[in-house]
Amino acid sequence: MKGGRHSTRDARPDSDAGEVPQARRGTTPQMKGRYPDFDVFDTEDTWDEATTKVVRARINVSHALSFFDEREALAARVLCDLVTDQDAEPRIPVLELIDEKFHKGKLDGFHFEDLPEDRETWRRVLRGLDETAEQRHAMSFSALSREEAQRIVEDFAEGSLSGGAWSSLNVARAWSVCTRAILAAFYSHPWAWNEIGFGGPAYPRGYMRMGGLSTRDPFETTEDSSPDPVREVGS
C-alpha cells in the first residue's frame, strides 16, 4: 500500500525525473522527501511553550506499548508500515502514537453504528488479519513476507475478507476506521511535515502571505522534485 506517499525502494541520492531526493536537512521517513532542505524545527523559536511541548512529545513518544498486547502489536506494526509505505528507518512511530491515544481513551467522539468503538474494532481487525494469514499461509500475519501481507491488506481495503473475526465487522468501514487512525498519527508527526514541506504550527507566529499558491512565507520552501502524480501512482 502506498498511503499517498512515495516509494523508497531502489532510491538513489540524486533526483532524476520522478525520483524522490535524499533529505539534506531535518528527519523524514526513510530520509526521503521532496523538500530535502526543509526542517520544521528551524522555526521552533517562533512557537510558544505549549506548542513546543506538544510537538516535542511526538518526537519523544514512548516505545513501550500499553494498549495493544504483544500479538496485536506485531500485526498492527505490519499494517501501519504497509499503509504508510514505511519499510526502512527512520520510521514515524505510528503504532506507538495510536497505542498512546487508545490507552489514554482519546477517541474521536463517534463510531459507526455497525461497528464497535474504535479500540474494539482494532482488536477484531488484528485478530482477523492473523486468522486470514493462518488460513492462507499457516503462520501469523506478522510472520508473512511483505508481499503476502500486502495482498491481505489489499483484500481488507476492498472489504473482501470474511469469516472468523471479520464476520463481526463491516469490513469496509473497519478499513476506514484503521486508516483514519494511521494517517492521523502519521501526519501529526514533525517528520511527516518535513517530508511534505509543511511549516508546522502557525501559533503564535501566523502566516503572512495569503495571496495564493504561488506565494510563500519566508519559512516555507520549494519542492525539489515534482513528478507527475498520475504517472507515479500508475507505476
Q: So what's the oligomer here?
A: single chain
Percentage of β-strand residues: under 5%
Number of strands: 0
- What would the principal axes of the Cα set say about the shape? globular
How much helix, percentage-wise, in residues?
40-55%
Spatial gap, N to C terminus:
13 Å
| Main structural class | mainly alpha
Query: Averaging pLDDT over every residue, what do you get?
Result: 86
The SSE order reads HHHHHHHH
Biggest sheet features: none
Rg computed from alpha carbons, rounded to a whole number of angstroms: 19 Å
**Poorly predicted segments:** 6-17
What is the number of helical segments per DSSP (H or I, 4+ residues)? 8
Descriptive report:
The chain has 235 residues and is an all-alpha fold. 42% of the residues lie in helices and 0% in strands. The protein contains eight helices and no strands. The model is unreliable at 6-17 (pLDDT under 50).
Summarize the structure.
This protein is an all-alpha fold and 235 residues long. Helix content is 42%, strand content 0%. The chain starts with 48 loop residues before the first helix and ends with a helix.
